[in-house]
Amino acid sequence: MSGLKGRVDELAAIMDEFGLEKAKWKTSDGTVELATQVDRPGVGAIAVASAAADTPTATAVRSKPKPSAPAAPSGIPVTSPMAGIYYSSSSPGAPAFAKEGDVVQAGQVVGLIEAMKVFNEITAPTSGTVTKVAVENAQLVQPGDPLIYIG
Question: Is the entire prediction scored with pTM above 0.85?
């Protein structure tokens, strides 16, 4: 049974590492299946069951607390028009173009995206207050990713 426990522990560690909800491990000795249930409150214990002695099967159910949905940012999102690297300032050490709480005007530069060694200015589509900066400096962004929110 200790070999079976070792398999369950190893499979559980793999699930945690890769954020998997289900995993199954088949060998000539038997099968180990694990599933994570998110709908139960609290963290539960691992239950192990074995079928016939010649083909051991382990089933484990681990429950995790249901994640609470983060509050949606308020305001109009300023999205990335292209894939590239987002920069919040013109150079390292320079102040950010726009920080949370800053008042910006329509057309004001709020960030840069470097794509193919070209720096593209990202401007505010409207005037207002920056309610949230959604990306970190030097973060890779894709088209449509929200960069900041203006309320």
Answer: no
